[in-house]
């Protein structure tokens, strides 16, 4: 049989997702990717409610997995392993996917691969293009904002991280202050398209600092306060544009510092951006221009694999399986799990 075929399960936040990915010499191929979003269940609360999320995962996981298997045209004997997110995330949800994965692995005699959700995002760009390690990664999601040197699966080191909020969290909270729905990132991007933020002065965090850390809480506070002063739809669009540009600028400033250090140590210069915020077009364009300016090739995952999905978990699982990095059946779900 050519390559490794792995079922991936993702339940760490508000998406119940299952996917089958085949990893062969020619690269990764997504055979199916099914995502049930719980957005409607949480919208009324303005954010994800952990208890509601966990219960919804319990209801959905079996159907979502069956659909992923059938869309891939496989039965269980066509699999080489089962991968499930084991953290970090809302632990009640993580336990659902991980327990389901354990049961499936035990019942079918397949190896179980516990995957770190962040490692899933880290490999997600490989779902769309053949990529060789190592690369410099900016991981920007709702829960994380980190720069990482990725040498291979299970072999990454962190160059910088946020000292307060994640970039996606800033998008979500400022969007809420602007009266936009959840999740805020895509809504804020849409509003910003008709705005011009040049009249707003927003704070620039950690200017002049020599490390690669991020900070978004000052921006969040300032923008939320400004949101209260907006009177017209145009005011709100202008502020949204200013916020999006400020976030893009900080991501670029920190990435530029990391690129300079990285370029001194590596011949192979590839910059990858991944995570939900990588779906933002202004941010993608800003980072692509920056990468080009510094002699880096640029790669971002296909849009469908920026936000949470199980294909990235299946791929990380397949890469781990290839290296023999499988898990014990009693592996625990972890709410916190730094890379
Ligand atoms: O990776 P992800 O789906 O979940 C986590 O692991 O956190 O990221 C979700 C985050 C949310 O904060 C959401 O607002 C943000 O990604 N996001 C965006 C866009 N699409 C999703 N932020 C800005 N622009 C977007 N187009
Ligand atoms: Zn994520």
Automatic annotation (TrEMBL):
Reactions accelerated catalytically: L-threonylcarbamoyladenylate + adenosine(37) in tRNA = N(6)-L-threonylcarbamoyladenosine(37) in tRNA + AMP + H(+)
InterPro entries in alphabetical order: ATPase_NBD, Gcp-like_dom, KAE1/TsaD, TsaD
Cofactor(s) the record lists: Fe(2+)
GO annotation, cellular component aspect: cytoplasm
BP-aspect Gene Ontology terms: tRNA threonylcarbamoyladenosine modification
Name of one Pfam family that matches: TsaD
Alphabetical keyword list: Acyltransferase, Cytoplasm, Iron, Metal-binding, Transferase, tRNA processing
UniProt keyword Cytoplasm present: yes
Positions bound to Fe cation: 117, 121, 308
Domain of life: Bacteria
EC annotation from Swiss-Prot or TrEMBL: 2.3.1.234
MF-aspect GO terms: iron ion binding; tRNA N(6)-L-threonylcarbamoyladenine synthase activity
Cofactor note: Binds 1 Fe(2+) ion per subunit.
Domain (Gcp-like): residue spans on this chain: 29-314
Subcellular location(s) of the protein: Cytoplasm
Entry binding sites for substrate: 139-143, 172, 185, 189, 280
Function in brief: Required for the formation of a threonylcarbamoyl group on adenosine at position 37 (t(6)A37) in tRNAs that read codons beginning with adenine. Is involved in the transfer of the threonylcarbamoyl moiety of threonylcarbamoyl-AMP (TC-AMP) to the N6 group of A37, together with TsaE and TsaB. TsaD likely plays a direct catalytic role in this reaction.
HAMAP family referenced in this protein's UniProt entry, alphabetically: TsaD
Family according to the record: Belongs to the KAE1 / TsaD family.
Protein name listed in UniProt: tRNA N6-adenosine threonylcarbamoyltransferase
Organism of provenance: Brevundimonas naejangsanensis
């Amino acid at each position: 049989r050519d390559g490794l075929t792995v079922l991936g399960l993702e339940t760490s936040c508000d998406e119940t997702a299952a996917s089958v990915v085949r990893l062969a010499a020619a690269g990764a191929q997504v055979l199916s990717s099914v995502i049930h979003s719980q957005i409607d269940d949480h919208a009324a609360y303005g954010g994800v409610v952990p208890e509601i999320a966990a219960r919804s995962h319990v209801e959905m996981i079996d159907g979502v997995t069956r659909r992923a298997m059938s869309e891939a045209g496989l039965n269980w004997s066509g699999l080489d392993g089962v991968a499930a997110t084991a953290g970090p995330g809302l632990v009640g949800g993580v336990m659902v996917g991980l327990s389901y994965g354990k049961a499936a692995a035990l019942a079918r005699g397949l190896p179980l691969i516990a995957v770190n959700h962040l490692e899933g995002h880290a490999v997600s760009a490989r779902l769309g293009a053949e990529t060789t390690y190592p690369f410099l990664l900016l991981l920007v999601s709702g829960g994380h904002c980190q720069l990482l040197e990725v040498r291979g699966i299970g072999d990454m080191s962190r160059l910088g991280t946020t000292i307060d909020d994640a970039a996606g969290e800033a998008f979500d909270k400022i969007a809420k202050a602007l009266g936009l729905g959840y999740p805020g990132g895509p809504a804020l991007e849409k509003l910003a398209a008709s705005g011009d933020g040049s009249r707003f002065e927003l704070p620039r965090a950690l200017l002049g600092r020599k490390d690669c850390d991020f900070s978004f809480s000052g921006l969040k506070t300032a923008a939320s306060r400004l949101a209260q002063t907006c009177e017209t739809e145009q005011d709100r669009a202008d502020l949204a544009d200013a916020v999006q540009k400020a976030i893009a600028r900080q991501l670029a400033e920190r990435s530029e510092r990391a690129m300079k250090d990285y370029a001194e140590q590596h011949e192979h210069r590839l910059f990858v951006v991944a995570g939900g915020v990588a779906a933002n077009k202004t941010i993608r364009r800003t980072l692509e221009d920056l990468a080009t300016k510094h002699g880096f090739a640029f790669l971002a995952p296909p849009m469908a694999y920026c936000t949470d999905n199980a294909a990235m978990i299946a791929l990380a699982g397949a890469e781990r399986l290839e290296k023999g990095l499988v898990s014990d059946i009693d592996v625990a779900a972890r709410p916190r799990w730094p890379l």
